[in-house]
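Example 282.
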Amino acid sequence: MTSYRGRLAPSPTGLLHIGHARTFWIAAERSRENQGTLIFRNEDLDAQRCRPEFVTAMYEDLRWLGVSWQEGPDVGGLFAPYSQSERRHFYLKAWRELRDGGFIYPCGCSRKDVAESAGAPHENADNQDDEPVYSGRCRRRSDATSFDAPAGVNWRFRVPDGEKIEFTDKNLGQQSFTAGRDFGDFLVWRRDDVPAYQLAVVVDDAAMQITEVVRGSDLLKSTARQILLCRALNLAIRDFYHCELVRDEAGVRLAKRHDALSVRRLREQGKRPSELFRDASR
Ligand code: GLU
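Predicted structure in complex with glutamic acid:
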């Protein structure tokens, strides 16, 4: 084992589809090539969307594919717990640090306000899950420190408008995003008291001493946001390897709703693991 630590970080909101599976397979390959340790982290923060049976299905489908991990909810490890729903105290500590440092502010805008003020959604279908650029309406609020707990209001990170956030991706090369233009003040904690993806991932990647993050290229812009969070929280910035997304015959990005392309269905049709990624170039 070397110091390389990679991770698989699925959200159990559906059956694993072939696009996701390919990313995890690459993550496993990179860990193996580097004689590293691979961590399975169950990103189950959103209780409305996550279901335990999908966690079990993910373990089974990934193992069937030949992907194995050395730390995770089912195998334990030094950095347990490995399910985000059990790690709230880590995120709360980070929320306090950000609040005390003046990096975040409470935002009373509804999702509708935000969507309307951001104008037309991005034309690119790959951006459909992306947060719209926030107008900044609540940015000047200065009552952050009057909150003892995050619940009841959305919390946003104030981005340095106009600053270029740059990094070199180990697969896709040099990347550059401009804060305030490519992405705006983003959520770190939701009104319904759920830590937002950006915060949870940054906190966990640091706490679990991940050295390289392998994930889909739909998250490139989130990497820029996460670099800002790392700076604010004084955390080291990890290496990144973003994988190209798998598309269907019509060029549409695969998502979990493409049930026919779930690993489970392909298995049921008698496909073998080696057939799944035959043309998956890296
Ligand atoms: N949990 C996220 C997802 O399933 C991925 C998070 C990440 O790799 O940073 O889309």
